[in-house]
Amino acid sequence: MIFYSFFPLGLLIWNLAGFMMVMVDKRRARRDEWRIRERTFFLWALAFGAPGIILGMQVFRHKTRHGPFVVGMPILCLFNIICGYLLWRQG
């Protein structure tokens, strides 16, 4: 049961990290530096980080024209919601 009391805080921190990841990648793109792999974004989103990444995409106007991100991130967000609901329902 202790897992469920810390789960919302963990989700908040995880999504904040995803948001910051988009910010860092945008900064690196502007400076023509080494970038964060797209695979990393998608794996992060798959592991309940999609809302933070979507928010970061909108705030920083980053990857908003890339088809896989425009389509894939909302799908992963929906997947996160469904999995979160199923976890909550079991507990």
Keywords:
91 residues, 3 helices, 84% helix, elongated
Give a brief rundown of this model.
Helix content is 84%, strand content 0%.
Q: Average pLDDT, to the nearest integer?
A: 94
Following the backbone from N to C, one meets helices and strands in this order, namely HHH
Helix content: over 70%
Main β sheet profile:
none
How many strand units? 0
Beta-strand share of residues: under 5%
Number of helices: 3
Number of domains: 1
The first-to-last residue Cα distance is: 8 Å
**C-alpha Rg (nearest Å):** 14 Å
- Model regions low in confidence, pLDDT < 50 over at least 5 residues: none
Class of secondary structure makeup: mainly alpha
Q: Any idea what the shape is?
A: elongated
Write up this protein:
The structure is a single chain. The protein is mostly helical and 91 residues long. The protein has one domain. 84% of the residues lie in helices and 0% in strands. The protein has 3 helices and no strands. Helix 1 packs across helix 2 and helix 2 crosses helix 3. It starts with a helix and ends with a helix. The mean pLDDT is 94.
